[in-house]
Amino acid sequence: MSYRGEIAMETQTTEQLLHKKCLPCEGGIPAYSPAEAEEQVKDLSSWRLTYDGKRIRKDWLMKHFTAGIEFFNAVAQLAETEQHHPDLHLEGYRKVWIEIWTHAIGGLSENDFILAAKIDQLPVKLKK
Q1: How far is 64 from 49, CA to CA, in rounded Å?
Q2: How far is 56 from 98, CA to CA, in rounded Å?
Q3: 37 near 43, Cβ under 8 Å?
Q4: Strand pairing category for 95-100 and 87-91
Q5: Residue 99: which residues within 8 A CB-CB, separation 6 or more?
């Protein structure tokens, strides 16, 4: 457990995150500290911190180009449902990566970890 001001911040399991919904964020809340983010990201499969702990990122190597596009379409639908939108990247026709952070606070919020956990539940066609 770490503390954010006077509020204790509990690290959540993926299962706990999956049962939550992203909440609108217009700023005014503190971003996770790098230490808090490091603790939270440990429970997410293959996600890692970037930008000095202010973003999370995951990479995939898709089976082929259209598999990447199909995956991004599924992520886009999820992002619209959650009203929290990641950065989507496609390189070299099948290498994809997603980076998430809460733009309004310039760092990570609970929404980022909720979205990452839900992205991990989407079907994906990986290169074998």
Answers
A1: 27
A2: 8
A3: no
A4: antiparallel
A5: 50, 55, 56, 57, 86, 87, 89
Q: What is the pLDDT of residues 65-104, one digit of tens each?
A: 999 999 999 999 999 999 999 999 999 999 999 999 999 9
pLDDT band, residue 2 (cuts 50/70/90): very low
Q: Could you give the C-alpha distances from 66 to 79, 86, 96, 125, in angstroms and in order? A: 20, 20, 11, 9
- Using an 8 Å Cβ cutoff, are 31 and 108 in contact? yes
User: Whole-model pTM?
Assistant: 0.92
Nearest to 49 by CA among 123, 95, 112, 94: 112
Q: How many CB atoms lie within 10 A of CB 80?
A: 10
Neighbours of 2 (CB within 10 A): 15
Residue type, 1: M
